[in-house]
Structures are given as C-alpha cells and as structure tokens.
Amino acid sequence: MTDYRRLRVALLGAGAVGSQVAALLLKHGDELADRAGAALDLVGISVRDIDAPRDVELPRELLTTDPEPLLVGSDIVIELMGGIEPARTSILKAIGAGADIVTANKALLATHGPELFEAADQVGASIYYEAAAAGAIPIIRPLRDSLAGDRVQRIMGIVNGTTNYILDRMDREGSDFADVLADAQALGYAEADPTADVEGYDAAQKAAILASLAFHTAVPLNAVHREGITQIDADMMDAARKAGYVIKLLAVCERLADAEVSPSGETISVRVYPALVPREHPLASVHGANNAVFVQAEAAGDLMFYGAGAGGVQTASAVLGDVVSAARRHIAGGVGVGESTRANLPVVPIGHVTTRYQITLEVDDRSGVLAAVAGLLSDGNVSVATLEQTIVADGDVQTARLVIGTHTAREQDLSDAVASLGESGVVKRVVSVLRVEGD
C-alpha cells in the first residue's frame, strides 16, 4: 500500500449501523485509503457492553467502555450512539480536542445543531451528517454544496421508511393500520414502541435538518408542524384511491411569500403530515420502506433522490462517505466548512400555508344538508371543487358520507371552517381532513 499519512478514527456505538461501519472500515481499509489519500486507522470502538451480541464480529481488542481516550486522541470521531446524551457531550469534547465529527444522529442535530456547528466553527473543525436525513440517500451534500448557488423553493420528502411501508401496504392491499404495523414490527421495520415513527417525530427531525440546509436558516424542532398516521384507515385509503391519490407521510419544506410577517417578503414553512399525493407524481411510486426526497429549485428545476432510507449496511455507506470527506479535509488542511444560516428567514405556523384539501364528513341523509355544508365552507373562504356522496344504512337510519375536494385555501381559513362544520349541528362527525401536495 502507498505510504499514506495515518489518521486516527474512533467509533462511538456499535449497533446496527456502527457495527457495519467498523466492519467495512476494517475490510476495505486499503481501498478507502486510496480514495481519501490517508490511511484510516480504527483505533477504538466505544460500547456500553463489550459482550453484547452484534450483527458482525468485531475485534475484541478494539472494544472499550471508556470513550474518553478516543474523544481526545482521534482525528475523526464517528458518533452512532443516537439520542441526545451522552452523544452531545461526547461530540463537544471531541470537537474541543480538534476532531472532525461524522454523525447520523438526527435527533441531536435537530435539537442542538446550532450549538454543535458553532463549537466546530470555533476550532475550525467540520461536522458531517449525510446519514442523518435519509439513510443511504445522498441529499445533504447536494443541498449544502451542489445547490449552494441556486434557490431551493420547495422540498417534499418521504423520509421515514416505517410509515411508508405501512401506508404503502394499506394502499395496495386494503389492510388495516394495526395489522400492517404488527407486520412491520415482526419484520424489524418498526420498533416495539413505534411512536417516533408513526407519530411523525422522526420525520420532523429530518425536516428541520433539510429545511435548515435548503433555506440557510436555523430551523428549531419546535417550529416544525407535526402530525402522524395513526388516524389513517382503510376508508380514507379507499377515498384517496377513488380520487386519484395515494396517502404518504410527507416532510414539506417551502418558501412562502408573506410580507405581513417578513420585511423581505419571504418566510418558510416546515411541516410533517399525511398528505394526498397524485398517483402520477414521482413520490407516489415510492414503495415499501424506501425513502425519496423531491427538490424544486429555481434554476435546476425538479430533482429526485431515491433509495434506502434505513438499514445498517445501507446507512453505513453514507457514514463512510463522510469519513472519506473528513479525511480529505485533514490532508488538504485549512478550516472546516461551516453551516450557512445567514438568511435567517422566519418560520411561520402552519396556518399561513396555502394548499388544497380533502374533507370527509358524516352527515344525516336529508335535504338541505349539502347546501348547508357548502354554505359554511363558503363563509369560511373555502370553495368546493369536487364532492362524492356515499349512503351508509344502519338499520332504519341512513347516514351520508361526503368526501369534499376543495380549491386552494389558506390553512387557517380551512381549519376555522372545519371547526364551524363540527359545531353547526349539520355535521355528525368530521372524519378526516387531508392536505393535497404535489399537484
């Protein structure tokens, strides 16, 4: 092998992703050295339990329960522990010792990203996090580097494989949510406690990261509107199918024109919710546990990034790409590239968003109801575009289910109009309200 400069690489965490990263570093060390221009010496792996079972067998002499020597004695520290602490403290200590950081920790970046990037800037280090937003899909570098000279207008992403697997099977098979969730847990796609996935927390963290990059603005996690998929049922899937849509859990990040809020006239919206996507849209054909990110840029136009959003070896690919980038920076010298958040655009609440909607209502099957519903929506500045009525008989009582498609409306107007419908006495139950995205 060429006599390269040697860089010390430490790994924190040896779970599904970490163990694969370690195995690939050891297996392909010579090849990675040729790409990086430096030998990448894995000097230690910090774990909670040295004897815990792992997906791959790792050299026991590399395992340690004491991360301190690794944090202060390495050139590159790979953090794959997950969670906030001790990951945050460990990363700050490694940065303080002059190390570059590679992480896939979306929760940490979404909540403490500005603090970590500021710490790295202070010492001229870099933080790499390609694996934090969409697993193996390369999206961070395109947003940070390739599109740095463009203006990203909008991002729509399927960034959680568990929810996409569930919704895809519900759409294609007509299955119930609970049944598919149980299958996803049995297959390892969903955790025993699936809350982070099915309630949209995981996707919201990734949306905050993507929006911060795309719009050069620090987006706090609490500014991301979040809704999950637990209320999606077979009837809603059927109504979507009849209307030419598929339901996907989307992370949506977009620029909005709002002179009332921003002196520049520009704001951004960042939100996660189940939405109706036209079946001809590229995101509608993302099946199984795959992820995809659809980017609309002013000059580049429409761009689609698709692939595995999770998986140990798949995510390890993105991590190792960052390791090679960090090694190249060490060899080239100079300070690390910091994050650009100087645009500082206001993040507005979801009430400022404008889109189309599908509203499903249960009403009494009697004359005058349709006119009353249309009137209440019109009073709330919501215009009806389509309407489908289905009669459901329960003994001698007949109930009508109305599926209403609207023209474009402001979210706050729509929300107020739906509240009025629920309080009017005309509507027995507001079954669901879904946004339409991508048409």
TrEMBL record:
Its EC number is 1.1.1.3. Its cofactor is a metal cation. InterPro entries: ACT-like_dom_sf, ACT_dom, Asp/hSer_DH_NAD-bd, HDH, HDH_cat, HDH_CS, NAD(P)-bd_dom_sf. Residues 358-435 form the ACT domain. It catalyses: L-homoserine + NADP(+) = L-aspartate 4-semialdehyde + NADPH + H(+); L-homoserine + NAD(+) = L-aspartate 4-semialdehyde + NADH + H(+). GO terms for molecular function: homoserine dehydrogenase activity. Pathway: Amino-acid biosynthesis; L-methionine biosynthesis via de novo pathway; L-homoserine from L-aspartate: step 3/3; Amino-acid biosynthesis; L-threonine biosynthesis; L-threonine from L-aspartate: step 3/5. Transmembrane segments: none annotated. The keyword Isomerase does not apply. Keywords: Amino-acid biosynthesis, Methionine biosynthesis, NADP, Oxidoreductase, Sodium, Threonine biosynthesis. It is an enzyme of class 1 (oxidoreductase). It comes from the Bacteria. Catalyzes the conversion of L-aspartate-beta-semialdehyde (L-Asa) to L-homoserine (L-Hse), the third step in the biosynthesis of threonine and methionine from aspartate. Belongs to the homoserine dehydrogenase family. This is Homoserine dehydrogenase. The lineage of its organism: Bacteria, Bacillati, Actinomycetota, Actinomycetes, Micrococcales.
